[in-house]
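Hey forum,

I'm writing up a methods section and want to include a predicted complex as supplementary material. The small molecule is zinc ion. I've pasted the protein sequence and the SMILES. Can someone with a working setup run it? I'll credit the forum in the acknowledgements.
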Amino acid sequence: MKAAILKEIEKLEIEEIKIPEPKETEILIKVKSCAVCGTDIKVYHYGHKHIVFPRVTGHELSGIIVKVGKNVEGYKEGDKVVVAPAIPCGRCYYCRKGQQTMCDNLKAIGYHYDGGFAEYMLIPENAVLNGCVNKIPDNLSFEIACLAEPLACVINGQDLSGIETGDIVLILGAGPIGILHALLAKINGAGKIILADTSSERIDEAKFADCILLDMNKVEIYEEVKKITDGHMADKVIVAVGNKQAQEISLKLVAKRGSINFFGGLPKESPYIQFDSNLLHYGEFFVVGTHGSTPLQNRIAIELLSSGRINVEKIITHKLPLEKIKEGFEIVESKKGLKVLILP
Ligand SMILES: [Zn+2]
Ligand SMILES: [Zn+2]
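Reply by user p_vandermeer:
Happy to help. Structure tokens for the complex are below, copy them as they are.
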């Protein structure tokens, strides 16, 4: 089979390798679609503490089951599936509390295990046993279904942000994740949704999201949010970019008793921001951070996509064969487009 193998930092090669053989407790899938995530680009340039090279990356994927280990129950050849890539252990304190994103022994596809930028992929035993393999309903294409992964992360974010009916929700960053936040906030009952970005192109591309768009090149964000909200500011702010300035400004954009979610992480060599703690003291707002998602949130994402309540078709701007994966990475990195799918 063909696989895109990351041999070392910035050395990605398409190679012919043996199709893996599933053990008794594993499943083999033919990968149908694997979206490029911002994290894939980060890993390509800087590596990752959980990745030992060589590794096949890619964790936003869908496929069809081609082989099932003889001790696997509940799945059969021909099932169309998505795989929640973060695999909880099911036994630790956090897993038992239902907070699997915080699992002490979390393992991930595309990091500890080979991922979806290949023609075939093994699903490890722990993923099968812990509900990470979710079947795709018939009305959903593989291409749409693979976006269940980023949507599940967005669901996790909004669960922790605690979005309530009528809330004014402000999202900083109009990339694919920011747009997913806007689409989800709508069905979560937000009263007003504002999506802001420093890139005019991104604002242009986000027009279909049906919310208030703020081009930060053209307006001063604090004044504009103040105007739109009658001075109240945003009940819930979601910082959907890994950017210090965005995190710092969010402290001034949140309403009293509101919440801010640092959804995007900062580079590990420079994680500190200026935080005016008096704003928090007097504003009594909450600051949360979120990353990843649980197998259940992945299931919920699939259901939202299947019901048509969240339509991600316009987020997919590029589809490329595995051979053109580097081109796909360049598109994501240059922010010229939204989601790039690799179809192995
Ligand atoms: Zn991702
Ligand atoms: Zn655990």
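Some notes you might quote in the supplement: The chain has two domains: 2-147+312-343, 153-289. The mean pLDDT is 97.
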